[in-house]
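ingest -> validate -> predict -> emit
validate: passed (alphabet ok, no gaps, 380 aa)
predict: started
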Amino acid sequence: MGAAGQGTPGLSIAELELEQRYRDFVVDSYSSASSLGILRWQQAGKPPRNLSRLKLFVPHAFRRLIQPGTGFPSHTTSSETQRGEPAPQDPNVVSHELALKRHRCCLLLGAPGAGKSEITRWLALLLGAADTYPKWLPPELLPIRIELSALDEDDRNGGDALGGIIGYTQRSLTANGMSSLASRLPMLVEAGRILFLFDGMDGVRSSARRERLAGMIRTLYRTTPCRVIVTSRLALDEELMGILSPAVSDVSDGFAAYYLEPFDAPRISQYLDKWHQEALSGHEAKRSARLERLRRSLEESHTLRDLAANPLLLTLLCALNQHHELPRRRHRIFAEAARLMIRDWGAQKEGLRRDNADSLGYEDKQRFLEELAWGMHQGR
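emit:
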């Protein structure tokens, strides 16, 4: 019984149906790669549509974090990998399957745009359906994905009286019409049938608040057999290693920190194939021409190859390449990206036409975003 939906011994038909309903909810929530506006794709004369997360996602290589606090995962991080070229063999680099199978509690670190949040959504989606359930995880896990900024806000408003992580999850399930599953959650946790996906510790701005949430995660890990994954930007590696690693006493079973490696050349190529197949399905001639143009641009430009090693920026390059050949200078790439997203502002919403999506003109939107960016930079 090693896959989702095949039945867990001792569960009633009603309980199986309840869990299947939740899995269906997870699949509905995460099947579309709609977290980024640029992943919504629009062909001429057709409304925008979301692209499939399962069809797009390319798993990273995981590098074991050896030296927290240095700003890099280890001295063996290669400049070749950062440029999107194959890296030499390194015993600290493993597949995502091996890393997540080996350790019950993982801290996943990465640069902005490295795909940390996408991994949590992708894992939740994998666990949601029988045909995608990963064989390298224990059977019958239910995914619970929690954005730590939301948990932090909830905890600040009520503290321990709200029941911590379990109480927060129960209220979230109830709010989505699954009160029966919410009532069963403590039993599922006690049985170790939950994979908790805590996303975005770097989104919790206060170190005191991060320590508070880390303590809640430590308690969950030490008192239950559940599996735990926490994501954050690499800049917090030393702090988080210090406050999360006390979660375990048995190193072989427990906590490990991994860095999401930049995409190497094979992964870049794989993603290019997937993106163009999904975005331009049914338009073979256009798909082939656009894909060839982008591959040629990457071969000719060191700057573009640097950008392509970052999954978010690689997605951006794919989207921009559909309009015209990519510029070769970094600042022009980002200027083009800003123009694309400003143009589509408002039209991303279902049912809105671009010509009447809102009353703001292009220059108004640009000025607004400039003021917003400056205010965020100043910490306002």
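The first strand starts at residue 40 and ends at 41.
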